[in-house]
Design goal:
Aminopeptidase, 29% strand, 178 residues, globular, 5 helices, eight-stranded mixed β-sheet, alpha+beta
């Protein structure tokens, strides 16, 4: 894995899946992936919340300027994405999606691990994210990855979001700087 986090996924996800930092040439594919991943939930969001969850290319470009955006590729197809925003006390994960056809293949776990590795490399002790109560599969994934509800909720765009966090344990490989 390089400094920004380009690596092949473990065999359990797919020996032909690559996670890499997104580039401007990926904007259209990321926008399409987000739309495909969240369309089935569209009626559960307010129109404003859905637009925030599925931003146009300009919104994805803005995310790239705030922090890393990763994509997962299987062959020539983009099958997953996640982004992160560095904050003072934690790394915020957002914009995570896996194409409906690739769900259950382990790609989401690999993207979360990518964010976690990135956070550890930069000395963060916590990962945080927001999700909605109706994204039950995502909540299950986050819980299985070690995230827990904090009890905090926010309601931007009139859709309630639940905050989840994961405390990162420092390992031998990721010792805290002296």
């Amino acid at each position: 894995m390089d400094n920004l986090g380009t690596w092949k996924t473990p065999q359990s996800a797919s020996s032909r899946t690559l996670v890499r930092v997104a580039s401007r040439s990926d904007l259209t594919a990321i926008a399409s992936l987000l739309l495909a991943a969240f369309t089935e939930f569209r009626e559960l969001y307010t129109p404003e919340a859905f637009a925030s969850t599925v931003p146009p290319e300009s919104g994805i470009l803005a995310r790239m300027e705030e922090g890393p955006v990763w994509v997962a590729e299987k062959g020539s197809a983009l099958v997953g994405t996640a982004s992160a925003i560095p904050a003072v006390e934690h790394l915020m994960v957002r914009g995570m999606a896996v194409s409906p056809e690739a769900r259950g293949s382990g790609i989401a776990k690999v993207l979360l691990q990518q964010a976690e590795d990135f956070a550890r490399q930069r000395g963060y002790r916590r990962l945080a994210l927001y999700t909605t109560a109706f994204l039950r599969s995502a909540i299950h994934l986050y819980e299985s990855a070690g995230f827990q509800f904090t009890g905090e909720t926010i309601c931007p765009h009139r859709t309630e979001l639940l905050r989840m966090e994961k405390v990162l344990r420092m390992t031998q490989e990721y010792k805290e700087p002296a």
